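Re: zinc ion structure - here you go.
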Amino acid sequence: MTSTEFHLRNAVVMTGNGPSAADVHVRDGRIVDLHNRNGPSTVAAGDVDAAGLWLLPGGVDPHVHFGMPLRDGLSSRGWRESSAAALLGGTTTVIDFANPSRGEPIADAVLRWQAAADGVCLCDWGLHATVCDIAPERLAELDGLVHAGVPTFKAFLAYKGRLMLAAAELRLLMRQVKDVGGHLLLHAEDGEMNAAAEAVLAATGRTGPEWHPAAHGPESEIEAIRQAMLLAEETGCPLTIVHLSTAAGLDLIRGARAVGVDLRAETCPQYLFRDESLYARGGDDALTALMAPPLRSPADAAALLDGLAGGDIAWLATDHCAFPLEVKRREAAHGFAAVPNGAAGVGERLLAAFTLGVRRGLLTPERWVRVCCEAPAGRLGLAGRKGRVAAGYDADLVLFDPEATGTRLPVDGHPDPSLWTGDDWCGRIVDVWRRGEQVVRDGKLVPDVSAGVFLSRLLPD
Ligand SMILES: [Zn+2]
């Protein structure tokens, strides 16, 4: 890590509370202080003149799956490639999920994930730990994980026979997470309902990818949220519903929050700006959009965007989990249920939300910064370090041109079809620094960027 000192001058600092005219002083990877300006600053040698640009905190994507092993040597797009896309898209911090195999100590899975990411991931990175069995020895591990900087856990009501917990099991897990001062993230789909629907579809020969959403109906998410919010209320365990996809689910969450339940929601750009019409097209369009929960109706998407803009949805993550199209095509021969779920997006989050949210007046610039940077960092144990342009924070900084048009996505030019393609996007990620090291220059990855570091997280009280 080189020792560097410089000033970023004349940018508009876009914070979660709105714009401010300030110059930013960076030294040894941190923001030393901000100097308010009245009028243009003089630019000295070594300074960066960012007149006409916005200065944003580096994006924080708290839900990604990089190099996730699935089965038979099949993994999602890897740590290096995915993290490079993240940097190009202005995201400097990611949080991935360590998934233990059945019977494996969770701490061992965390070590496996750390070994895979260490020295490879170009973003700074943290880990959530998935809990897929509630044997006493597994639950006994949670306290140690919290103290090892992994204070956030993931559970599934979906994926029967693999990851699914029954309601009674989820209750035990939530009690334990609450006891150790952790935070639970939940994939809220009812695995029993999905399995039953899938079996009927299979028995009647409806196995093409266009049938995937029929096995993951909105009622499945709604039912799972209903169950989870009762358990959150009963146990007092802080709970976030990840990748929320339905308007009715959001209404339930609003209702629970109104009576004081510690419950919040995450959503993803695909649930705001894409919809289920992609499945009806079939073929590669349906395969590209094959994820759980699936894309929903335009009315759901509009309600979620409204919830994100208004504060009822806490943050915007991507659930980036990209499998090669050729793999999806091959597996589709065995029916949609065999196709690996997930889509790329870690590099496109800021630009998609800017183009389709901010530029249309549906999301304010400050809310965009709040949900993509500040909120996930603050709520998930990176307060004081990530997600804000403020003195003492890591110098994770993005120079953004809000006037640019004709921007091409995906940011890394990956050839697989994506939900985010074309050359008519607005805004441009110009330069990016991660802990004071320039990692993107004029829209291109700087050669020989150093690797990111593991982030040991500590939840706020
Ligand atoms: Zn996920």
